[in-house]
Amino acid sequence: EAGVTQSPTHLIKTRGQQVTLRCSPISGHTSVYWYQQALGLGLQFLLWYDEGEERNRGNFPPRFSGRQFPNYSSELNVNALELEDSALYLCASSTRTGAVIEQYFGPGTRLTVT
Amino acid sequence: GEDVEQSLFLSVREGDSSVINCTYTDSSSTYLYWYKQEPGAGLQLLTYIFSNMDMKQDQRLTVLLNKKDKHLSLRIADTQTGDSAIYFCAEMEYGNKLVFGAGTILRVKS
User: Fold this and answer.
1) A66 touches chain B (CB under 8 A)
2) What is the pLDDT of residues B13-35, one digit of tens each?
3) 8 Å CB contact between B62 and B56
4) B92 has a chain A CB within 8 A of its CB
5) Chain A residue numbers touching B42 (CB-CB < 8 A)
6) Which range, B28-32, B66-70, B77-81, is most confident?
7) Which residues of chain A have pLDDT under 50?
8) CA count, 13 A, side-chain hemisphere, B103
9) B56 vs B100: CA distance, rounded Å
10) Does B96 contact A42 at a Cβ distance shorter than 8 Å?
């Protein structure tokens, strides 16, 4: 079974630019999550999409946005990039086994903002 | 609450047991998770436990939960060099949000 895939692997952007990151969930998973792993800040929850709708949002400014498509893949968009947006962006997808939600992560997209 | 704390570094010899500790603050019933991250990779889900359980064993991994102290530990038996990685504990909060600790770097010496 293929895992969560993300593209691109690495990205270098200039401050003020916009970027789009992509994620494909595990087949059969309808929920997609985005997390930011920045140096010194650890892993921070960004967004949760399920069945095409945004279900929860972390403490990030509105220039972080995303969407989920009918095939459950997802995009994360970041506008007006700032230097502190440099981070590893991790996507996860989930299934529910009884009451537990298991989130499986992709390899991440490394974003560098210069 | 949203505070998950972990010890930052652990060094063990190959073949020994490793114990990685974590404390959490959410007082509601929840699931607690352990993830492993190898250099340059994403997070690998290792195991999880519900907050009303005391212990869960899964092959070389044992999770112990002290509910009173909100203390969670991950024991890795017969630690191998391939176990060298960063280990994160996390608790599930409202809205399917995982709140992670800062991670414990495990170094296994051969």
Assistant:
1) no
2) 999 999 999 999 877 778 999 99
3) yes
4) yes
5) 4, 90, 105-108
6) B77-81
7) none
8) 21
9) 20
10) no
